[in-house]
Amino acid sequence: MSRRTLKLPTWLPIDPYVLALIGTVVLAALLPASGTAAEVAGGASTGAVALLFFLYGARLSTAEALEGLRHWRLHLTVLACTFVAFPLLGLASTGLVPYVLTPQLQEGLLFLCLVPSTIQSSIAFTSIARGNVPAAICAGSFSSIAGILLTPLLAALLIGGSGGGFSADALLKIVLQLLVPFLAGQLLRRWIGGFLARHRKVLGYVDRGSILLVVYTAFSEGMVAGIWHQVTPGRLGALLATEAVLLALMLTLTWYGGKRLGFDRGDRIAIQFAGSKKSLAAGLPMASVLFGAHASLAVLPLMLFHQMQLMVCAVLAKRRSRDPLPTSGAVSEEPVTVG
């Protein structure tokens, strides 16, 4: 007799990296860095964030990004969803304080709404749903680049006056720690791009390891400061429910908004998956720079939203993949797949 193995449903992805993030949070709760160890961890975290954005810049092909500008209406639509619609919904969540969310959790929710879109998961889900993959690649790339400037500027405008720890010094740190390494990576890409492409898998571990270090440092600071006593199970459940509504609204807006703007099926899929997501990889390092000791509560909504968007969009992409394709033969309606 053959033995059956228990497998998770394919429509319910439990990202191993999310499990690693949870493990890092638990480690910070049990063994938080303090004193000299906190200073060492903070310095290492600063260096890791700079390295992370240097690698982002070195990997991004400027030529491919410029080529993607030809589809400017789609990219402007995604940027509008990411940096206009999301922030407006984040501002609307202030009405939930203090009855549903605490001021700190609402601040973290607003920061989540200011973070750029993802690249990898947007591409993956667009491909599964047989949408316009090249458009998703460019849209995610443009959003990431714009986010390096727009996220801190929007945070200064919308969060700066609410006690979130943002200041002119934080903006300077963003420039030195994120933008300068990114530009340096772009300048050196000509010489190191091939090396990075050949060692993509190893460098992927560097990326994720850097983010785990940022999470450990942020949550350690939160534990030492005692701010985690402010989060009760009831408040956590309310945050999850709020984020579920937020995701549902953005998925609906990107799909039907794309239809109203006249985009075809493939483009609407790219808009939906690129315009409804938020990047954990970009958001965590930015939060560590912007919020300092308050970063642990600031990134909690983003970490929860990250896993929620993966699970929901996996189901949605599978359903979209079963949609009947148009038979008119139009080139723009043909499914695009990753080779």
Largest sheet: none
- Helical element count? 13
What helical percentage do the residues reach? over 70%
Instruction: Choose one word for the global shape.
Output: globular
Strand content: under 5%
What features would you describe in this structure?
- The chain has 339 residues and is mainly α.
- The chain is 73% helix and 0% strand.
- It is built from 13 helices and no strands.
- Helix 2 (36-59) crosses helix 8, helix 4 runs parallel beside helix 7 (133-158) and helix 10 packs across helix 13.
- The radius of gyration is 20 Å and the shape is globular.
- The chain starts with 15 loop residues before the first helix and ends in an 18-residue tail after the last helix.
- Mean pLDDT is 81; it is low at 1-12 and 328-339.
Précis, in short:
The protein is mainly α. Helices cover 73% and strands 0% of the residues.
Write out key terms for the chains shown.
disordered C terminus; 339 residues; 0% strand; globular; mainly alpha
List the helices and strands and how they pair.
Blueprint: H1 16-30, H2 36-59, H3 62-68, H4 72-92, H5 103-114, H6 120-128, H7 133-158, H8 168-198, H9 200-225, H10 233-260, H11 265-275, H12 280-291, H13 295-321
Helix pairs in contact: 1-9, 2-8, 2-9, 4-5, 4-7, 4-10, 4-11, 5-13, 6-7, 6-11, 6-13, 7-8, 7-11, 8-12, 9-12, 10-11, 10-13, 12-13
